[in-house]
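Human: Not sure, check this?
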Amino acid sequence: MSEGSIESDKEVGVALALGAIAVVGAVVMVAYPGQLGKAWGFAGAFVFATLAVGAVQLFD
């Protein structure tokens, strides 16, 4: 029996989930017909991409 620690891949899962939401925001930014919708898509993509990078750093 090994007494080593068990590593978790929680940061990868959280980063992938937040990255998927960031991709949805980027699609909204490109596909939305109005300027205000494009701005909200950019804001969502930027915030969730930043959170994805932060999650990797937090759980590392």
The radius of gyration is 16 Å. The CA atoms of residues 2 and 8 lie 17 Å apart. Helices lie at 10-31, 35-59.
